Amino acid sequence: MASRWTHRVRAPGRVNLIGEHTDYNGLPVLPVAIQRSVRIELRARGDRRVRLTNEDPRFEPCEFEIAADLAPFPSGHWGNYAKAAAQALQRRSGLDGGFDGLVAGDIPAAAGLSSSSALVVASALALLAANGIELERGELMELTASAERYVGTDSGGMDQAISLGGRAGHAVRIDFDPLRLEPVPLPADWRIVIANSLVEARKSGGAQAAYNARVRECREALAALLARPTALGLPTTYRGLVSGVQSGRLLELAAALPAPLSGRFRHVVTEAARVDEAVAAMRAGDLEAFGRLLDASHASLRDDYEVSCKELDELVGCAREHGAAGARLTGAGFGGCAVLAARAEALPGLLAGLAQSFYGRRGIDPVARDALLVAEPSDGAQTDRLEDAYARVGPTTMPLSAAEIEDLRRAQKLLEHPGLAIKLTNLIGTPIEKGMALLPKRASTLVNDATTKALRAALRLAVVTMGKKPRPASRATHRVLAIGSGAAGGFFGLPALAIELPVSTAIILRSVADIARSEGEDLSSPESRLACIEVFAFGGPSRGDDAAETGYFAVRSALSIAVAEAAQFIAEKGLVEEGAPVLVRLVAQIASRFSVAVSEKLAAQAVPVVGALGGATVNAIFVSHFQDMATGHFIVRRLERAHGFEEVRRAYANLDLAGSRAPPRIGPRASGDPPRIA
Ligand code: NG1
User: Fold this and answer.
1) All residues at 6 or more sequence positions from 411 whose CB lies less than 8 Å from its CB, including other chains
2) What is the average pLDDT across 645-651?
């Protein structure tokens, strides 16, 4: 990099709790800014060009010259959201300079979580930073809201306002004309879950026309109503009607309109009332009342506003069956996500229930598809000068030192090169597939079964018996023990697996725990203990994965929700309920990867030249493979404690780009969907 990035901007996505399709009618909304965001690292340029590259290679680099009238890129191009911000700011302030920017983001696109507005807001902040201009937040909210209409959607101002005005731990009630924001604390035992129907609602496609049609119909409904003789003396805006006319009368007025205007009008006015009631329920901590409002909102959006689809209806139904207090589609609709409210204790059952019902029925792993997210109500957008950013948050976002980069490189080598299959092939001198062919048909069922049992036992061991006294790691002792167990296993082959595997797994786990301690982990925390169990998932593909998912960070992303939920569950309950869905799900996810390694080991042991002693050697390689994974994993985690997850992940990806191997995919998206922004 020729010269350093000078600023970093971050703009969050949002989930709207209630108040849907009200913003463009001047009525209130109640969204939450979430932990997913668009980030841009940038440096100012001497000319007026904006040059953007995206960390996600699916979004091609783009550039343009800032002007007051910018011709758009083709419809659906991600660069149009930056152009939207540039054109608006150019008209408002006259910009002197452009910038070079590196864009990264993790808001699912076309999902009703406002990835598009986050990009508009981030682009606006980047332009302001590059030009040294400061704008008042409220003005910026309004400017970015009208700026986004550049892409052809007649949208309201909710998304830009919450992206700029979010507050950690809070939902924000937003009123329009004039813009007012009122943070409402989210009760501590409420959880907001975002569940993606995985039906794309693309604003650059059909959803845009359908959205704009709703905006038009709302205007027509109001005009038709006011044109009636009986309307004499009525307020002439939705806001005026909602605040000045009784709800019964509003429903009568709605009923007198022709379809579909009558439904559109009824939705808008009843939804506005629900926002008031939802704010009151949240302030009172009344989750049941809040849930009922979500349900009513969904019914209204489905029947009167006609913006749901059968998948969203099904998802919302499943959510209620599995313990959500209420659920509804969120965002514009036509696909995208549902928002669910639940009590914290209902969360594990809710997530597992959705995984089994809605996603399971479709053969979809919701974690691999990044379809389930527990919202963390977050602060709004921010700009950091990079030196300031480092100074303010201390060492957590400092770049890695040269020595640490070397550590990271060592970790990466261990984690990514070469897989267990290659190590075993080198040992037996025959491709592992030959051994696979020697295994009886029932092997795969036996392996899955044994793997799941062994991991369940390992989890028990990790949670119940792992102490916290630091000792130096002693790989050799553990390896000798495992070789002993493998020598027995080699004699008996497949039937012995059920006995042998829990033993080797336990031995590996002890060794992993030692390595964890030596890298400074505090094994008294459930999170660290689960990090030990996670090791069994690394170093190979899972059954049914595509190769893109095998990189270390990809596997961690895929496991992240399950691990976090399990850690929370164990912290609260210990291991009293081993059959709890959240733990079963974690074990199943790790088992799907670990079973591949176990099959490979078994295949190597099945090759005739590999007798008892050979079997022991196979086991030694097996154990040392996972010790390597553990060493790499806990080095990465040590660096994350010092520098933050994002910083280390980025450094890791850059190392890979410099190396010979194609980079492992980072980020949780694995859908192969074409790259587009909502
Ligand atoms: P999403 O869900 O991001 O498409 C859209 C509008 C909002 C609001 C909601 C419906 C944009 C950028 N945003 O959000 O203003 O009208 O639909 O409540 O189009």
Assistant:
1) 631, 632, 633, 635, 636
2) 85
Distance, in Å, from the CA atom of 547 to the CA atom of 191, rounded to the nearest integer, reads 34
Residue 675 is predicted with a pLDDT of 33
Q: 664: pLDDT confidence band, cut at 50, 70 and 90?
A: very low
Pocket test for ligand 1, best of 25, 142, 155, 329 (most atoms within 8 A of CB): 155
0.70 exceeded by pTM: no
| 439 contacts 495 by C-beta, under 8 angstroms | no
**Atom 11 in ligand 1: which residue has the minimum CA distance?**
155
Which atom of ligand 1 is nearest the CA belonging to 160?
12
Q: Can you give the three-state secondary structure of 394-417, one letter per residue?
A: HHHHCCCCHHHHHHHHHHHHHHHC
Asked if residue 76 lies in contact with residue 676, where contact means CB atoms within 8 angstroms, the answer is yes
The set of catalytic residues is 159
User: What are the chain's domains?
Assistant: 7-186 (3.30.230.10), 420-654 (no CATH)
Strand ranges, E, within 230-331 = 326-329
Secondary structure (DSSP) of 530-570:
HHHHHGGG-SSPPTT--GGG-SHHHHHHHHHHHHHHHHHHH
Ligand 1 centroid to residue 589 C-alpha, Å: 35
Residues with CB under 6 A from ligand 1: 16, 20-21, 23-24, 112, 114, 116-117, 148, 153, 155-156, 158-159, 203, 331-332, 678
552-573 vs 645-658: helix axis angle to the nearest 10?
160
Work out the number of other CB atoms within 10 angstroms of the CB of residue 394.
Answer: 9
What six digits make up the tokens of 271? 């939804």
The DSSP bridge partners found for residue 42 are 7, 101
Under 8 Å between Cβ of 668 and 557: yes
pLDDT at position 495: 63
**311: Cβ contacts below 8 Å, ≥ 6 apart:** 197, 198, 199, 335
